[in-house]
Amino acid sequence: MFSFQNLYLFFIASLLLNLAPGNDMIYVASRSVSYGIKAGVISAVGIFAGCSVHIAAAVLGLSIVIAKSAYLFQLIKYAGAAYLIYLGVKALLSKQSINTKNDSEGKADYWKLFKQGAITNALNPKVAIFFLSFLPQFINAASPFFKLQLLVLGLWFAIQGTLVLIVVACILGKTKDFFSKNPKIWAMQEKITGFILIGLGVKIALTSRK
CA-based angle 196:202:206, to the nearest 5? Predict the structure, then answer.
């Protein structure tokens, strides 16, 4: 089953990735600022629905490939490490800010916000690459419970990310000017997260299959 070391690395990496400002967080933040807490929460749930598509795809297609090919395991491992490093570098170089202007006036269309969140995540190729390259690094590919482990870690990551986004929605839904008045704090958090992600990417690249 799971090893303590793998779970330890996964919990750290998943938390940092979910806390790192990215497209999903900025989307939920903008919806929360524009329409309030409920809109932000519904947008976060929509993103979870889109993320579930990637989890299902990973569970249905990865187990045989990883279990039968040591070469592909190494290839995916280095792809996962490279992706983490890419995210870290992107965080270091990012100058993206949160949109605090209202997109429109009036009551939010919550069903539309849900669909937008789901489609935005489901059609993001970077999310697909993430689940195909990141999750298997923390699983024993030879285990008969490989698919179950993949599903559990995928759901953990998605639920954890959704909870983070809900917190973001609750904060920004009440304090609309929080991030706009503290751009230096946002930028500093991105830089720290970037360095940590790069370090985790290097660590994963040096991790053996066993």
Answer: 140
The CA distance from 181 to 176, in Å, is 10
| pLDDT tens per residue across all 210 residues of the chain | 555 456 778 888 888 888 887 778 877 887 787 777 898 999 999 999 989 988 887 788 754 555 456 676 677 678 778 877 887 887 788 665 555 444 444 456 788 889 888 887 877 656 766 777 788 778 776 777 878 888 888 999 999 999 999 999 998 877 655 555 666 765 675 677 678 778 878 877 776 655
C-alpha distances out from residue 175 to 28, 154, 182, Å? 14, 31, 12
Whether this model's pTM surpasses 0.90: no
175: left (phi over 0), alpha (psi -120 to 50) or beta: beta
Do residues 21 and 97 lie in contact, with contact meaning Cβ atoms separated by under 8 Å?
Answer: no
Separation between Cα atoms, residue 97 and residue 8, nearest integer Å: 31
Segment holding 192, helix H or strand E: helix 183-205
- Report CA-CA distances (Å) from 159 to 14, 98, 128: 11, 23, 17
Give the whole-angstrom CA distance, residue 110 versus residue 199. 39
Contact 205, 68 (CB under 8 A): no
Half-sphere exposure of 65 (CA within 13 A, CB side): 15
- Sequence spans of domains, the chain: 4-77+98-177
